[in-house]
Amino acid sequence: MDIAEHLKKIFDVYAKNWLSLIVGLIAAFIIPVILAAVAGGALALGIAGSVNFNTLMTMKSLSDISTLLGAVNWGTLGIYMILALIFLIAAGITGVAFFTGYYRYCGDLYQGRKTSISAVFQIAKEKWLTALVATIIVAIIIGIINIIVGALGLSSVGMLSTINMTDVSALATLSALGIVSWLIGFIVGLFFIFVLPSIAVEDRGIVDSIQRSVNVTASKFVKVFLTFFVLQILLLILTLIPIIGSLLVLLVYFPLSVLLPISILKEK
Q1: What is the C-alpha separation between 246 and 254, in angstroms, rounded?
Q2: Choosing a second label site near 156 at 20 to 30 A (CA), which of 67, 126, 129, 192?
Q3: Is the Cβ–Cβ distance between 200 and 103 less than 8 Å?
């Protein structure tokens, strides 16, 4: 299929199954969202219960470290921070697991198979460790690349710091650097965009799914780049819509972004 056919296919699948896709999305992420909310609540309670704000108000400046240290009950804050971290890690693990399950659920809908919400939880249970390890490996690889790109970017900005920033050419160069940085990050992400779909839909292992993702993107780079770029434009348009835009991003863009890699993987 060409780019237009992939986009038409995922929009058709969404149009026919929009309610199932949204219900599956809610089922997949309700637990991670609750865990993340508990983590945020624990941190907020820790700050509220361990910080003496009256003492903080007596600070003469931000450099008044002794007053700052004295205003915080570090033992209480530490306990709440540990609790928040535990729930945050749990949210991350369940998020990866259920996201993988949602890929299988969407894959079944894409292929016209009968499925149910239980498929999300079943695949999450079976594939959570594989998906988690693969995600960590990918995160490390992308992190290393980002550090290298960031170091190059900082060196470029350092060179530009000697230039008069009222100079239009200097500002244009900074803007160009920002665009290039985003483009590099976007392209790097594309090489790993098929990892979780490969695990969920094709039952691949950790190394195999990473190799599959890299190979698919490398062999179909123009198609992958342009189709996901179109989806990024859709995301930009939706974010510009006041209030309802955020809801459309969650309920429309997100399922489409899950269906698209499945469509490319299943291409004959």
Answers
A1: 11
A2: 192
A3: yes
Report which of 182, 187, 201, 60 is spatially closest to residue 127, judged by C-alpha positions.
201
Residues in the chain: 268
β-partners of residue 5 are none
CA pair distance 261, 18, nearest whole angstrom: 17
Amino acid at 33: V
Q: What interhelical angle do 254-265 and 195-202 show, nearest 10?
A: 70
This prediction's pTM = 0.85
DSSP assigned state of 52 = -
| Domain-wise residue ranges, the chain | 3-265
Structure tokens at 194: 């098929």
Paired tokens of 79: 């306990």
Low-confidence ranges of the chain (pLDDT < 70): 52-71, 152-178, 268
Amino acid at position 142, single letter = I
pLDDT in tens, 95-118: 999 999 999 999 999 999 989 999
Q: Which of 138, 128, 126, 46 is nearest to 86 (CA)?
A: 46
Rg from Cα positions in the chain: 23
Sign of the CA dihedral with 218 first, then 224, 229, and 235 last: negative
Hey, is 94 helix, strand or coil? helix
Intra-chain end-to-end CA distance of the chain, in Å:
8
- Which amino acid is located at 69 in the chain? L
| Cα dist from 245 to 16, 28, 235, 253, whole Å | 22, 21, 9, 10
Q: Phi, psi at residue 64, to the nearest 5°?
A: -80, 75
Instruction: Report d(CA 41, CA 31) in Å as an integer.
Output: 15
CB under 8 Å to 133, separation ≥6 — which residues? 206
